[in-house]
From TrEMBL:
It comes from Caldichromatium japonicum. The record marks 40-41 as: Contributes to redox potential value. One of its GO terms (cellular component) is cytoplasm. It holds the Pfam family Thioredoxin. PROSITE patterns: THIOREDOXIN_1, THIOREDOXIN_2. Residues 1-117 form the Thioredoxin domain. Belongs to the thioredoxin family. GO terms for molecular function: protein-disulfide reductase activity. This is Thioredoxin. Disulfide bonds join 39-42. The keyword ATP-binding does not apply.
């Protein structure tokens, strides 16, 4: 799947994670937000993640995984997500870093600078 066919911010699921996240991460870094609708900090984090994606002008994407949908909790378990929200950075098919809990867009941008592998 070419990166042009995915929006900068998109929802993904257990069934499409390999194609939409792991495969695409070889072309472009992707933040994956594991969140739940009942989670207050998840809702607090969402606009900050969206702002970070805007700050990076198409250089990074955001995939959102709602853990209460379908098989998505299995996906969270596979990546050993223990609390929500948890954000994982994937690049070149690998996990490059993660954080849990709400953060400001400035904190997230700083975290990204520490974890992105520049090419």
């Amino acid at each position: 799947m070419p990166t042009q066919s995915l929006p900068l911010i998109f929802d993904t699921h257990y069934e499409s994670f390999q194609e939409q996240v792991i495969a695409i991460s070889h072309q472009q870094p992707i933040l994956v937000d594991f969140w739940a609708d009942w989670c207050g900090p998840c809702h607090a984090l969402a606009p900050h993640l969206e702002r970070v994606i805007g700050d990076h002008a198409g250089q990074i994407r955001l995939a959102r995984v709602e853990v209460d949908e379908g098989e998505n909790m299995r996906l969270a378990g596979h990546y050993r997500v223990r609390g929500f929200p948890t954000v994982i950075l994937f690049q070149d098919g690998l996990e490059r870093g993660r954080f849990s809990g709400a953060r400001s867009h400035l904190q997230i941008n700083h975290w990204l600078k520490e974890h992105l592998v520049l090419k």
